[in-house]
Amino acid sequence: MSTMKRIAFDIETVGENFDNIDEITKDVLTHSLVRDDGDESDKERLLRDLKDGLGFSPLTGQVVAVGVMDIDSQKGGVYFQSPEKPHERVEEDGITFEAMTEEKILKKFWEIAEHANVFVTFNGRAFDVPFLIVKSAVHGIKPTVNLMQNRYLSYQNSGAVHVDLFDQFSFYGAVRRKGGMHLWCRAFGIKSPKEDGVNGDDVARLFEEGKFLDIAKYNVGDIRATKELFHIWEKYF
């Protein structure tokens, strides 16, 4: 595998503004929130959770950043949305930050992916890759590699191996307590992206506040942590 081009990647997403969604879609989304016992406080909590979770689905969310890092050179880029707020292309610690539309972000990702052999994610099979594929289809963009082929590494095509560390560290879901990225970073003494005071739940707020570069820099923490966890997995697992 050492002769292969290996990249780690991660995406950041935000959901639509619930108030701007059409009434039919609101009814579809909130249908399951109706309770027979009439507990309004519980319904309000569930509605709040629903609104906060719209960014978890490509049907109600959008990609606002994609970070990619070459695992061996440790160089990479974060391609992020910056609506109506131009950002110059800048480089910092080997990472290029470049603002573009969602469509261009997706095109850029698949262009990079076409030249890689090994793809490393944390929970990418359940979240990042399906989200990228669906949103790419919305924009009429066809993926250049198949990152959703067989879940088990021994059955994957060597031309595009997807190492989902969430799967690997949980032994494909065999363990009872699977653990998120922060817990795995903590276990192995790796800096967690959360240590800088930002986590995935903050992305929507930062986007609303126009702090687009902050989102991109948070994304760098994710891909660096993913890269470090990959080295642990590669050496010991």
From TrEMBL:
One Pfam family cited in the UniProt record for this chain: DNA_pol_B_exo2
Residue stretches making up the Predicted 3'-5' exonuclease PolB-like domain: 96-226
Listed GO MF terms: nucleic acid binding
InterPro entries associated with the record: 3'-5'_exonuclease_PolB-like, RNaseH-like_sf, RNaseH_sf
Protein name, per record: Predicted 3'-5' exonuclease PolB-like domain-containing protein
